[in-house]
Amino acid sequence: MDLFVLAADLDIVNALEGLLSRPGDLGIRGVAFAVQRHPGRDSGCRTGSVEYLRPYLNRYDRALIVFDRHGCGDNRPRQDIQRYVEDGLARNGWERRAKAIVIDPELEAWTWNTSPAVSRILGWGNQYPALRRWLDGQELWPRGRSKPPDPKKAMREAMQNKRVQRSPRRFSRLAKDVDFNGCQDPAFNELRQTLQAWFPPEAAA
Question: Quick check: helix, strand or coil at residue 65?
C-alpha cells in the first residue's frame, strides 16, 4: 500500500483522512492509505514511532507521523523534533521513506484561514467577517497576526459562543471543505510538499 499515517489523536486522524480524500486539491495522485492513532498520543508518536511502525515496514511504501508540539514532551523547535523522529525511523529501515510532521502548537493552527467554510463549520454561518471581528474583540486573534496565538482556545470559544459542540468529526469537515491554498502554517505546507514529492500527479494519457 502507498501510505501509512500514524496520528496522535482522533482529531488528527479525521483531519488527515479528510485531506487525503482530496488528492487533486493537494496536488497529488490518488493514494491508498491507512490512518491509525497512537495510544500514547503526542508523546507516544515522538518516542514510540519506531516500535509502532515496525510491523508496517515492508507493507507500506511511505509513512507519515503527525502530532502536536504542544503535549509531546519536547520543547525544542518543531524541526528539531521532526529530525529526532525521522533519524530513529531511518536507523530502523525506513531510510527516506518516512516523514514526521510536528504541528506548532497544535492541530487547530490549521483551522484558521480566510475560507468561508471555516465560519460555517464553527457555527457562524457565512459570517466570516463577523467571526473575525468577534475574535479580535475577545483578544483571541489580534489584527495583524496570521493566526490566533492560542488556536485551540480561539476555536473552542468561537464554537461555545454559537453553542456548537466540539467533535473530532468537525476536523474531517474542515479538511474536506476548507480552501487551504492560502494556508500559511509551516507544518501544513511541509505536509503538502512531502505528499507532492512522494505522490506526484499521474501524467495525462
Answer: strand
CA–CA distance, 180 with 112 (Å, rounded to integer): 10
Which has the closest alpha carbon to 15: 154, 187, 159? 187
Q: What is the pLDDT along the chain (205 residues), one digit of tens a residue?
A: 999 999 999 999 999 999 999 999 999 999 999 999 999 999 999 999 999 999 999 999 999 999 999 999 999 999 999 999 999 999 999 999 999 999 999 999 998 988 889 999 999 999 999 999 999 999 999 998 988 999 999 999 999 999 999 899 999 999 999 988 778 899 999 999 999 999 999 864 4
Residue 58 exposed, middle or buried by CB count within 10 Å (0-12, 13-18, 19+): exposed
| Identity of the residue numbered 114 | T
* Contact indicator for 109, 151 with CB cutoff of 8 Å: yes
Domains of the chain are 3-108+179-198 (3.40.50), 113-167 (no CATH)
* Alpha-carbon gap, residue 61 to 37, rounded angstroms: 19
What pTM does this model have?
Answer: 0.94
Contact 48, 7 (CB under 8 A): no
Backbone angles phi, psi at 15, to 5 degrees: -65, -45
Between the alpha carbon of residue 181 and those of residues 29, 100, 173, the distances in Å are: 17, 21, 16
CA dist., res. 48 & res. 19, Å (int): 24
